[in-house]
Design brief:
heterodimer; A: alpha/beta; Rossmann fold; 12 helices; B: four-stranded antiparallel sheet
Chain lengths: 328, 340
């Protein structure tokens, strides 16, 4: 085998908390994973599992003043971002790490023309002159395949369709040729046909620029289609981590299995009873210390009150080894 | 399309058009129209689910709203059982409304936050003067039980519930008057996968138990395939293909249907499906192309031929209808459709 690819980002036992009326609650509870150079890591889980908070912790875009990183390390190219100053982070965000959010309309300023918003990145991060920045912005819009970029640059965000807006957001995120792109549900608000266009675009740009991607989504289909490695999160913790092929063919945690069986695919017999996961995710403040999927299933035994170990059960396949939920 | 309208239809829609006026200038004179639904014909049999798919802006929600008469059609007709409800006033519609209800995508927005769950579910009974207070209370409890919510939920407010539970409240309310048809507009697209499967199971179960018909509008094609008996594919205000779910998914004839299907992400990382990537966006329904709308989008060489051509659907195989459009079907299919 060839040399393993270099690790560009390593998240180690990250803890992110929010201050609430009910005291400090942990949205992310000791999450660890790594992203290899040029690879795509998918983070999948249901609403409230902490997948977005994990991503936002990396670039420290947590709601202020309530959100805080309370522990762990985030090594980006060897440097610990947890210890980085706000000034340093400002340089990294939009520079070496690009971010795409779900709702492109919320990420764009409705009062400014598209061209100005893309050019701004070059003014801030590359110190280009206004003229050069405008020109660079045009090239970026061309790169994300927006037809007639010069014309579009004079448009306001509301002039564009959802798919076109998301292309503009991608153009902004990729303007400085980042080494890492964090995409939080980039295609959730889009139609399947547009989703296919955007995923195809991200895939092509990734190999052109040679960057790594963290793709956050609740859609297992998108994960299967685009990711090299997958992290499955449940209630603030990683319950399973493996390569995409391994995870889909050999899921070892009960939650991953249940999740995979809940989705109707084109092969599911019509109107058959779909698998459901009983109960719901406990509120953040009520999270058990022990195995949280056991908590959801209403299992409160002595064995499940201790936090299960997260261990590597086969090469590169990590699972939370709860004695009930870990099913080899 | 007319010949498929059998006497057994619960709902039959013919040539329905819903246009919204575009007004400009100080005088607000009408200068154009958004042709949201532009000549749609379909029918739904008792106990059947008709899936309706298409991209955003294709008019599928407008069509759903027009069918339950939350919108006024511009032209065409809607027959529900034996009554023509196309032009009925809201007042004369009221007794008929018991039979057709709607479930919306976002239950957070469609449920009044100032009403308790009991008042939300009880309201349809009050409007229709049904039952005594005590009877209504019992019915509310029965409905809650039916949709899988504890009866203790009755005195709580909708915002106290999660998305999936709210959707159950919306379903309970829609079920209250024992309707025959429910228009479901993206009922699960705002929900997490594990909750989505719960709601889909509930809808399938209710259909079996009460013999309900659904018009199931969604953009997720795997979900639509799961619940539908027949599927209609809509593009820019028109239905371009209509067939049984099996035929649509295994033997699609319209190139737009093929493109939609190929865009569904596969759930197996080892399978890389060949994708038909569509360039560009859906054209504006304010000023639609004169000929084939989809042919125009894909720049088809035969587009010019379609200007002025009758592109309405024809039956290409038993119960399989497709737009007679040379840009969008295979050469062999076109020969059949054009009768050459």
């Amino acid at each position: 085998m060839s040399e393993p690819p270099e690790i560009i980002l390593e998240v180690d036992k990250l803890i992110t908390s929010f201050e609430t009326d009910r005291g400090l609650i942990r949205a992310v509870d000791q999450v660890s994973f790594s992203v290899a150079e040029g690879k795509t890591l998918g983070i999948v889980g249901e609403s409230g599992c902490g997948k977005s908070v994990t991503a936002m912790s990396i670039v420290r875009l947590l709601p202020q003043p309530t959100g805080k990183i309370l522990g762990g390390h985030i090594y980006f190219k060897g440097r610990d971002l947890v210890k980085a100053s706000d000034r340093e982070l400002q340089k990294i965000r939009g520079g070496d790490i690009g971010v795409i959010f779900q709702e492109p309309m919320a990420a764009l300023n409705p009062l400014h023309r598209i061209g100005r918003q893309v050019a701004e990145v070059f003014l801030i991060h590359k110190n280009l002159s206004k003229k050069d920045a405008w020109h660079a912005a045009k090239e970026m819009l061309d790169l994300v395949r927006i037809p007639a970029p010069e014309k579009r640059m004079m448009d306001y965000p509301h002039h564009l369709s959802g798919g076109m807006r998301q292309r503009v957001v991608i153009a902004i995120a990729l303007a400085c040729k980042p080494s890492l792109l964090i995409a939080d549900e980039p295609t959730t608000a889009l139609d399947v046909t547009v989703q296919a266009q955007i995923l195809d675009l991200m895939d092509r740009l990734q190999s052109e620029i040679g960057m790594s991607t963290i793709l956050i989504t609740h859609d297992l289909g998108v994960i299967a289609e685009t990711c090299d490695d997958v992290v499955v999160m449940y209630a603030g913790r990683v319950v399973e981590r493996a390569s995409a092929q391994e995870l889909f063919s050999n899921p070892l945690h009960a939650y991953t299995r249940e999740l995979l069986h809940s989705i109707p695919t084109l092969d599911t017999p019509s109107k058959s009873v779909l698998n459901t996961i009983p109960g719901m995710v406990a509120a953040l403040a009520d999270h058990s210390h022990g195995c949280r999927f056991c908590q959801r299933m209403g299992r409160d035994t002595v064995v499940t009150r201790e936090r299960p170990l997260f261990s590597e059960v086969s090469p590169n396949h990590w699972v939370e080894t709860c004695s009930i939920c870990y099913q080899p | 399309m007319l010949s498929t309208v059998s006497t057994s239809s619960l709902l039959s829609v013919k040539n329905l058009r819903v246009h919204f006026p575009v007004r400009t200038g100080v005088m607000m004179r009408q200068t154009g129209a958004v042709r949201a639904v532009d000549g749609v014909s379909l029918n739904i049999a008792p106990g059947e689910t008709l899936g309706l798919v298409g991209e955003s802006g294709c008019g599928k929600s407008t069509l759903g709203k027009a069918i339950v008469r939350l919108l006024k059609p511009t032209a065409g007709s809607i027959h529900f059982e034996n009554s023509n409800i196309t032009k009925s006033s809201q007042h004369s519609l009221r007794p008929l409304r018991r039979d057709f209800q709607m479930i919306f995508q976002d239950p957070a927005e469609s449920l009044d936050p100032r009403m308790s769950v009991r008042s939300i579910i009880e309201e349809p009974f009050i409007i229709h003067n049904l039952g005594t207070r005590g009877e209504r209370l019992k019915w509310v409890n029965d409905l809650l039980d039916r949709v899988g919510l504890p009866t203790s939920s009755a005195e709580r407010y909708s915002f106290e519930f999660s998305g999936g539970q709210r959707q159950r409240i919306g379903i309970a309310r829609a079920l209250a008057l024992k309707p025959k048809l429910i228009v479901c507009d993206e009922p699960v697209s705002a929900l997490d996968v594990s909750v989505q499967s719960q709601i889909l199971n509930l809808l399938v179960e209710l259909q079996r138990d009460f013999g309900l018909s659904y018009l199931f509008i969604a953009h997720d094609l795997s979900v639509v395939k799961h619940v539908s008996d027949r599927v209609a594919v809509m593009y820019l205000g028109k239905i371009v293909e209509l067939a049984t779910a099996v035929a649509i998914y295994q033997d699609p004839r319209h190139v737009y249907t093929k493109a939609l299907l190929s865009a569904i992400p596969s759930h197996d990382p080892k399978v890389k499906r060949e994708k038909i990537l569509l360039e560009g966006d859906v054209p504006s329904p304010i000023d639609p192309p004169a000929g084939s709308a989809f042919g125009h989008r894909i720049n088809h060489p035969r587009y010019e031929e379609t200007v002025g051509l009758d592109l309405s659907m024809k039956e290409i195989a038993f119960n399989h209808w497709v737009a007679a459009d040379p840009c969008c079907v295979s050469v062999d299919d076109w020969k059949k459709l054009s009768g050459a």
